[in-house]
Amino acid sequence: MAPIPTPSAEPDDNPDAYVGLTAGRAEDLARERGWSTVRALPPGAIITMEYRVGRLNFEVKDGRVARAWKG
């Protein structure tokens, strides 16, 4: 039987630090800090609710991050 893989640790990072940044700057910074997946979404976007280790989500309004969360 194959072992169950252990997911890699998420970056020690505060999603609130991205609020107010431009979407492009926030994405670049998130990747520099080690996030494997960065997802920019418009306000009210319909998304799946599964938690993905290593993913950082941004709600982008008028080109700036209005909200950020892990998973």
Automatic annotation (TrEMBL):
**InterPro entries cross-referenced by the UniProt entry:** Prot_inh_I78
The name of this protein is: I78 family peptidase inhibitor
